[in-house]
Amino acid sequence: EDEARLAKEEVSGLKEAARRAEDATQRVLLSLTQERQTAGLRQAELHGVTRELHEEKAAAAAKRDTLLTQVNELRHRLGERSREVSADAESIYASASSQAGNTRSPVPSDVTADRSAAHEWSVSQSER
User: Fold this and answer.
1) Quick check: 12 pLDDT over 90?
2) Of 10, 55, 79, 114, which is most buried, counting CB atoms within 10 Å of its CB?
3) By the 8 A CB rule, do 126 and 72 touch?
4) Which of 94, 77, 79, 86 is CA-nearest to residue 114?
5) How many other C-beta atoms lie within 10 A of the C-beta of residue 121?
6) CB neighbourhood size of 122 (10 A)
7) What whole-number distance in Å separates Cα of residue 91 and Cα of residue 84?
8) How many helices and strands in the chain, by DSSP H and E?
9) 21-49, pLDDT tens digit by residue?
10) pLDDT of residue 74
11) What was the pLDDT predicted at 96?
């Protein structure tokens, strides 16, 4: 009789231990499932942020290219305008020199050198 009662108590204790172990297992599984879901959400969020960064990078590169094109066009126009101004200056100087009866070169060498330097600078800038 005592043995039967002890056996029943032992079985009852084992059942309780098994129930507690099952509860602990379920809690761990639930926790792992939640962590997996959280990790999945974080991964999706990081993927979205990465995609946005790539899009922003592409947009910035396109804007940079557009600005570089505009700068090069402006440099080219500046070079053309510089040549026009130099030609006008030469013409004005030549006209003034002939009216004054000057027989020297129609354009002083320093003006020619300045024009040449301005042209070289403009070409070097447009090549950048």
Assistant:
1) yes
2) 79
3) yes
4) 86
5) 14
6) 19
7) 10
8) 2, 0
9) 999 999 999 999 999 999 999 999 999 99
10) 96
11) 87
Token pair 């070169």 in the structure block, residue? 105
C-alpha pair distances (Å), 81 with each of 19, 21, 84, 119: 92, 89, 5, 10
The residue with tokens 């009662």 is: 5
- Contact (CB, 8 A) for 86 and 118: yes
Residues 6+ apart with CB under 8 A from 119: 79, 82, 83, 86
Q: Which residues have C-beta within 8 Å of that of residue 86, sequence separation ≥ 6?
A: 111, 114, 115, 118, 119
The dihedral over CA atoms of 83, 85, 89, 95, expressed in degrees to the nearest 10, equals: 100
Structure tokens at 64: 């940079």
Q: How many CB atoms lie within 10 A of CB 114?
A: 13
What six digits make up the tokens of 55? 């899009």
Helix ranges (DSSP H) in the chain: 2-99, 109-127
CA dihedral sign of residues 108, 114, 115, 117: positive
Integer Cα distance of 48 and 40 in angstroms? 12
